């Protein structure tokens, strides 16, 4: 028995959803999570996150640890983020209502990922009642939805992952998998991501005589098209990489040939593609255009150069995968589907930068990042039960 109380976990989920926590505004949610753990004598601590240079952000992760009896036994990390995207205006009800209807709980972040956060908290509390040999580290983090993943980045920088052996992140996997999946499902890897930041510099001239200048906006359009059609890598598990121009701006003066333009292009990559190779791909494609403007290719500014979302794949034979497969059969009566994530998140930091075997398993739903977001309440319960069962197999 997993000792997961279905009513308790759904009440907890409603409480979490009813606290607005857009990224960079997670303070109230962090306080709630801290108090929930403290009320159960689980000894939470705040872990400060500061980024003064670009975002001027100050916030706090919430961390708790269960210490096992055997120092040689493995340590399991349970990671979930407390923030959501900014509240979407198109809701036709309170975006933080927590309304339940037909087995669905509605609210901004209900699926991404307060459902997974509720699962982690309840599973952690249940594992605290077990006679564990190994440790369990709980990290409820800030700023996963923001530009840099500052919460989990700071965990790694401050050494919290140094003694961890494996990680579970309870993101909603099936909704963003590379292929159609339904829960129960385990996602064993993810593509990585770079963001090209391209500056195009032409030559101004009067708009009535454009042949006297070099139109940076026109050349930027050609660069955008070239990068949109860039040859990308492929991987047997992660599928193909991709490119997507997401911003093109330049020019503004009446009757003037634009002398500069700015282009940003999203580049999702697979294992084997490096930062140097990604830059070279873009530069070679641009050189082949033979345009008159000067073009400089760089990457989006980040607080630290190593804050990159690298791709990763977790071995299907790893004990964590086996324990979660067994847990799925026990809890749901079904073997889980295995898949891979299409985009990026804190799991990239853990699976690539921290080099941890990392599995995504979380409750699914629909309309993530948009109005009408919901999570399936039965899957929130099942994920918590799976985490407890897997934790018992790995750590007891």
TrEMBL record:
UniProt KW keywords: Hydrolase, Metal-binding, Zinc
Gene Ontology molecular function: hydrolase activity; metal ion binding
Domain of life (superkingdom): Archaea
Cofactors demanded by this protein: Zn(2+)
Gene3D superfamilies: 3.30.70.360, Zn peptidases
Database matches in Pfam families: M20_dimer, Peptidase_M20
Classification via PROSITE patterns: ARGE_DAPE_CPG2_1 (PS00758), ARGE_DAPE_CPG2_2 (PS00759)
Family: Belongs to the peptidase M20A family.
Protein name as it appears in the record: M20/M25/M40 family metallo-hydrolase
Species of origin: Halobaculum magnesiiphilum
């Amino acid at each position: 028995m997993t000792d997961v109380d279905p009513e308790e976990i759904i009440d907890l989920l409603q409480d979490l959803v009813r606290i607005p926590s857009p990224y960079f505004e997670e303070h109230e949610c962090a306080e709630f999570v801290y108090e929930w753990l403290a009320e159960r004598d689980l000894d939470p601590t705040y872990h400060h996150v500061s980024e003064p240079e670009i975002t001027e952000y100050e916030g706090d992760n919430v961390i708790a640890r269960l210490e096992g009896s055997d120092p040689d036994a493995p340590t399991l990390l349970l990671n979930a983020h407390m923030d959501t995207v900014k509240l979407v205006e198109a809701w036709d009800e309170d975006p933080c209502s927590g309304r339940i209807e037909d087995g669905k709980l509605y609210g901004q972040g209900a699926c991404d990922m307060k459902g997974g956060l509720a699962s982690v908290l309840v599973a952690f509390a249940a594992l605290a009642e077990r006679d564990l040999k190994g440790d369990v580290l709980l990290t409820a983090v800030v700023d996963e939805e923001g530009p840099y993943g500052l919460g989990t980045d700071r965990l790694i920088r401050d050494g919290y992952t140094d003694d961890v052996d494996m990680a579970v992140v309870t993101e909603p996997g099936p909704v963003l998998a590379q292929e159609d999946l339904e829960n129960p499902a385990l996602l064993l890897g993810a593509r990585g991501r770079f963001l090209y930041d391209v500056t195009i510099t032409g030559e101004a001239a009067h708009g009535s005589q454009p042949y006297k200048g070099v139109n940076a906006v026109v050349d930027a359009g050609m660069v955008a098209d070239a990068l949109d059609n860039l040859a990308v890598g492929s991987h047997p598990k992660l599928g193909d990489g991709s490119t997507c121009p997401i911003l093109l701006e330049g020019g503004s003066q009446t009757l003037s040939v634009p002398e500069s333009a700015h282009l940003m292009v999203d580049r999702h990559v697979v294992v084997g593609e490096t930062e140097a190779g990604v830059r070279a791909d873009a530069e070679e494609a641009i050189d082949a255009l033979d345009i008159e403007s000067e073009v400089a290719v760089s990457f989006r500014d980040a607080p630290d150069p190593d804050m990159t979302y690298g791709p990763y794949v977790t071995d299907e034979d790893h004990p964590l995968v086996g324990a979660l497969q067994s847990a799925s059969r026990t809890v749901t009566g079904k073997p889980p589907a295995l898949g891979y994530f299409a985009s990026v998140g804190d799991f990239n930091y853990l699976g690539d930068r921290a080099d941890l075997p990392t599995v995504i398993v979380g409750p699914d739903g629909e309309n993530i990042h948009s109005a009408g977001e919901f999570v399936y309440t039965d899957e929130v319960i099942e994920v918590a039960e799976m985490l407890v069962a897997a934790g018992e197999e790995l750590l007891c």
